[in-house]
Specification:
Helix content is about 60%, strand content about 0%. By secondary structure, it is an all-alpha fold. The protein is globular, with a radius of gyration of 29 Å. Mean pLDDT is about 80; it is low at about 1-45, about 50-80, about 90-105, about 110-115 and about 690-700.
Length: about 750
């Protein structure tokens, strides 16, 4: 046993990766030695919550030293001489061939990579030459002159730079080639960069990212494995590898990769272990995830993101009281960590149903927060307090909190406070006060954000019935802020709500001339083309897939075409495929999940499949969508509660219109209808892969008149426009906005769009 001056005895070397044991269930992977394996040791398994810990013991936790140690037995831990592998045993056959991997300073927990890290450093002169090259390469002049000029720039730069920095030039040129869609050239340049400097994690990450974006997942996995061989335990590479394996459904391999952290001190591995906890939560293993969070809260209580994610985990599980307790414990440890103060604000509204108790607790929390939180965040705390007071009927208190927020706010951010105040006044139908505050916000907002204020002004004019004033404001905003696609979208939605379909179509097409790569604009155009027939919709859908193939909103509209019972392309299998793409590409778009729920109810999906969809949605935490906002009646609803509301809405609507869907399903079973619908789906998929009518694929047959939809004679009047989304009632409300009450109109115009600090 070495004393203070001697080196500690090294732990036994790890077993070869090829012989790493795998548990039968695939969930029990090892933690660092100090925590006694995964799941955490028995000392941390008491209680059923993240905060089932001894607070006094947590207070005694010490910050890690500069050497990275966290207690006995972890100073100078020798690192294994074989690289980390994405899959157990993948590197075993090659681990003994040739010299061991080299380490960069950022990924060698033993601290021995400092010398090797010098390979990534640059002298002041080299840094200046490289920065000038990078700036010139990204300039408009280089983009105009083309690839040949860029190559000449790179050759001059390579001549002026030492060989140790050449890999950076190749990395820049690879990025340029990727942006120009010269993927073969980019691949070659990435290989050169990784060969010249294999200990540079950035090169491996960019290379893997390109292959993943191209859909070459096996190549991506091989690149990440090689990267981890040369940069063992590098945090970004480990996180990328875990997420890649999870995306491929290889949870067992992801857990095996996490098990290789057993020789890394927790102060250097906590982010990766935290990702392991989130992986278990996304997989529905809540008990396992909670045990990992408990370990992290005990072993690394000084890291704010650990407390924050543990709090969010309990909230997603539907335990607001426990989430609140985790956040409060976190604030005792880290009283200056801002996200926890705001989490407590929101959790108090969810956990305290009594209004008097809620308001009292919120005011006490804010008064305590302004004494601890960073001065830059004090205005946000008062802003949140103002919104809580407004939601609880205390307009005077809300105004007072907004005034304090303005007093603590930087001048360039005050427009946000005026905007929030205007929305609060609007909730009490004080239109004149709201308009005055919006004018103040417009006067004080920076030029880049004036379009957002003008958009808010146009909504107020629309709510008051002055459509022409709203159009004029949006017209001015489009001219002054052409780069703000939200203004163009709002112009389209204004015409849709005004039942001016032809003007809405014109605005949508003009918007796409400016913002051709915006999926939401394509999605709204697809929906508008419903009046011209399903084949017009499909043509726009196919064109949109060529422009924005990874837009979840566009794929969702394709699914809606196939779910419309009046559609000539009613096809539940195609809708299933399209919705899979939608939630894969844009999981934050809530409408895709609600449409998926409608599909599952139509086909009578097993409960396990529905539960899996719910889990995907809860993990994604969607934050926008027409149907999503319609189901989210208040900003306080959690994702689970929104899904419950949406399920109840769909259940009512499917019960009311079941005969229409049954008639569509019966018609879709006919061979002639099925072949026509299948041809349309095939054409859409050809468009996605760049195919065309001139390709070798057989041309789609000309559309034939579909067989009639046999509806019961007693059915109330109904048409295709009623089914453009999953809610007939919502679709009709959008077409009858002028006949709705003030609250209903306000809900449709503003949706669930919140003013956030």
């Amino acid at each position: 046993g070495g004393g203070r001056g001697g080196a500690p005895p090294p732990p036994p070397p790890p077993p070869p990766l090829s012989h790493m044991p795998q548990q039968a269930q695939g969930r029990e992977y090892a933690l660092p030695p100090q925590c006694g394996g995964w799941p955490p040791s028995a000392a941390l398994q008491g209680g059923g919550s993240c905060c089932g810990l001894d607070a006094a013991a947590m207070q005694r936790q010490q910050m890690p030293s500069a050497a990275g140690s966290m207690g006995a037995g972890r100073v100078g831990v020798p690192m294994p001489q074989a690289g980390v592998a994405l899959r157990s045993g993948e590197m075993g056959a090659r681990g003994g061939a040739g010299p061991g991997p080299s380490y960069c300073s950022s990924c060698d927990p033993s601290g021995r990579g400092d010398a090797r890290g010098k390979d990534l450093a640059m002298s002041p002169r080299s840094r200046a030459v490289y920065k000038d090259f990078s700036h010139t390469l990204r300039s408009k002049e280089t983009q105009v002159r083309g690839a040949r000029y860029a190559q000449q720039l790179a050759e001059r730069c390579l001549h002026d730079l030492p060989e140790a920095v050449h890999w950076r030039v190749h990395l820049e040129m690879a990025d340029l080639a990727k942006r120009e869609k010269s993927f073969g050239r980019a691949r070659q340049l990435y290989r050169m960069a990784t060969q010249l400097q294999p200990t540079a994690p950035q090169a491996w990450l960019e290379f893997a990212k390109m292959e993943e974006e191209r859909g070459h997942f096996s190549r991506c996995e091989k690149i990440l494995t090689l990267g981890l061989r040369h940069c063992p335990y590098h945090e970004a590479l480990m996180l990328k590898g875990i997420k890649h394996l999870e995306r491929m459904g290889e949870l067992r391999a992801a857990r095996s990769l996490l098990s290789q952290l057993q020789y890394v001190p927790v102060n250097q591995s906590w982010r990766t272990v935290l990702e392991g906890a989130l992986l278990e939560a996304r997989a529905g293993e809540t008990a396992m995830a909670r045990r990992v969070f408990k370990f992290l809260l005990h072993a690394a209580p000084w890291y704010g993101p650990v407390w924050f994610e543990a709090c969010r985990f309990e909230q997603r599980c539907g335990h607001p009281q426990e989430a609140l307790r985790v956040a409060e414990e976190g604030l005792k440890q880290l009283p200056r960590y801002g996200p926890l103060w705001f989490s407590v604000m929101r959790l108090l509204e969810c956990a305290l149903p009594n209004r008097h108790e809620l308001v009292h607790a919120t005011r006490a929390h804010v008064e305590r927060g302004v004494r601890h939180i960073s001065k830059d965040l004090v205005w946000k705390l008062w802003f949140e307090a103002a919104q809580v007071e407004e939601r609880n009927g205390n307009l005077a208190r809300s105004r007072s909190a907004y005034v304090k927020s303005v007093g603590a706010c930087a001048p360039n951010l005050r427009w946000k406070v005026w905007l929030g105040g205007a929305r609060s006044e609007l909730s009490y139908s004080r239109f004149d006060v709201s308009q005055a505050l919006l004018e103040r916000a417009l006067a004080e907002s920076p030029p880049k954000t004036r379009a957002i204020v003008m958009l808010e002004q146009s909504r107020l004019y629309e709510l008051r019935g002055d459509i022409e004033a709203a159009r004029g404001l949006l017209r001015s905003a489009r001219k002054s802020a052409r780069s703000e696609w939200k203004v163009f979208l709002e112009s389209v939605l204004l015409e849709m709500r005004s039942e001016a379909t032809s003007r809405a179509l014109r605005e949508a097409r003009r918007a796409l001339e400016v913002h051709r790569g915006t999926g939401r604009l394509w999605a709204v155009l697809i929906q508008l083309e419903q009046a011209s027939g399903v084949h017009h919709q499909l043509r726009v859908f196919q064109q949109a897939l060529l422009e924005v193939p990874k837009s979840g909103e566009v794929w969702c509209e394709g699914a809606r075409i196939c779910l419309n019972p009046f559609s000539d392309c009613f096809n539940l299998e195609a809708a299933h495929n399209f919705l899979d793409f939608a939630i894969e590409f844009t999981p934050q778009y809530g409408d895709s999940f609600i449409e998926y729920l409608r599909l599952m109810m139509l086909v009578g999906a097993p409960d396990a499949d529905v539960e899996r969809l719910w889990q995907l949605c809860i993990n994604a935490e969607p934050n926008y969508g027409t149907l999503w906002f319609h189901s989210k009646r208040t900003v306080l609803l959690t994702t689970r509660q929104v899904l419950e509301s949406a399920t109840e809405l769909l259940r009512r609507e499917l019960s009311e219109w079941r005969s229409v869907y049954d008639a569509a399903i019966a018609r879709a079973a006919r061979p002639d209808f099925r072949s026509t619908a299948l041809a349309a789906v095939t054409a859409a998929m050809l468009a996605r892969t760049g195919g065309s009518a001139d390709s070798d694929a057989p041309a789609a047959p000309a559309p034939l008149p579909p067989p009639p939809l046999n509806l019961p004679a007693s059915l109330p009047p109904v048409e295709a426009a009623d089914f453009v989304t999953g809610s007939v009632a919502l679709n009709r409300m959008h077409r009858q906005l002028g006949r709705l009450g003030l609250e209903e109109r306000r809900a449709l115009i503003y949706g669930g769009d919140m003013i956030v600090p």
